[in-house]
Amino acid sequence: MPSHFHAVVWIDHSQARIFHLGLSGSDEITLHPQLATRHLHHKANVTGSGHAAPDKTFYADVTKALADAGEVLIIGPASAKTELASHIRAHAPDVAKRIAAVEAADHPSDNEIIAYAKRHFKVPLPRVQAPT
Predict the structure, then answer these.
(1) Which domain holds residue 106?
(2) What digits encode the pLDDT tens for the residues 110-122?
(3) What are the two backbone dihedrals, phi and then psi, of residue 36, each rounded to the nearest 5 degrees?
(4) How many angstroms separate the Cα of 87 from the Cα of each of 27, 128, 130?
């Protein structure tokens, strides 16, 4: 995979879609947690919050995929985005310095993720020359 300067990761508890962006295009990696995520429900008078614990192995794999990016944008619909950012800050301070932002994003398509990241990073669109 060619190295690109910018990276955006859209993450929830079931997958991470990572895009490395540059002037020559983009590359995508999709990662999934090793253990299937179950929805837990909180019951009255029961110890615990009803939330699954963060998957440290999953977040470590995502962090590894972001290691060569110069700037990182983390987006997603729920708490996984902030859990990933916290994991990176605790376990990969060199990558943490390159986190540009952590922002909410629902469930965009791949093209919408790339367009959002290009606007965020102000990556210029390729120029198309008019026919002569």
Answers:
(1) 6-32+51-121
(2) 999 999 998 998 8
(3) -65, 140
(4) 24, 41, 47
Please name the helix (run of DSSP H) or strand (run of DSSP E) that holds residue 50, with its range, or none. Answer: none
Nearest 5°: phi and psi at 10? -100, 125
Residue 131 lies in a domain: no
How far is residue 109's CA from residue 106's CA, in Å, rounded to a whole number? 10
Is 103 within a domain?
yes
Give 22's strand partners.
25
To the nearest whole percent, how much of the chain has pLDDT over 70?
76
Instruction: Report pLDDT digits (tens) over 20-56.
Output: 987 677 889 999 998 655 544 555 555 555 556 678 9
The type of residue at 48 is: G
Residue 126 lies in a domain: no
pTM for the complete prediction?
Answer: 0.80
Query: Residue 10 is part of a domain; what is its CATH number?
Result: 3.30.420.60
Number of domains in the chain: 1
Q: Can you tell me the distance from the alpha carbon of 85 to that of 132, in angstroms, rounded to the nearest whole number?
A: 49
Answer whether residue 83 is part of any domain.
yes
